[in-house]
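Quick check before the chapter quiz. The format below is the same one you will see on the exam, so make sure you can read both the input and the output lines.
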Amino acid sequence: MADTTVERKTRVKPKVERPKLYKVLLLNDDYTPREFVVMVLRAVFRLSDSQAETVMMTAHQKGSCVVSVYPRDVAETKASEATDLAKEHGYPLLFSTEPEE
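Here is the expected output.
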């Protein structure tokens, strides 16, 4: 039998990092009705009634509250969608984003 050499090729798998996550914050104001805030949280962020009530009350008592955490583009889109919905109805409700630590 003849000598056969086998060469092995190694594959390099690139490491893909998970995207950094961003928090969507609900900022309290004294003018937007609580019922409207709950409606926005349910419509835009798909929270249940009890979750929306809890987030709204936490923001009301502490000044702000984390609504949810998403990749950056999703977080910014949801925050602007919720803020725009409030503006359409004449309320100063504000959502913002910040990087998660």
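If your answer matched, good. The longest helix spans residues 72-88.
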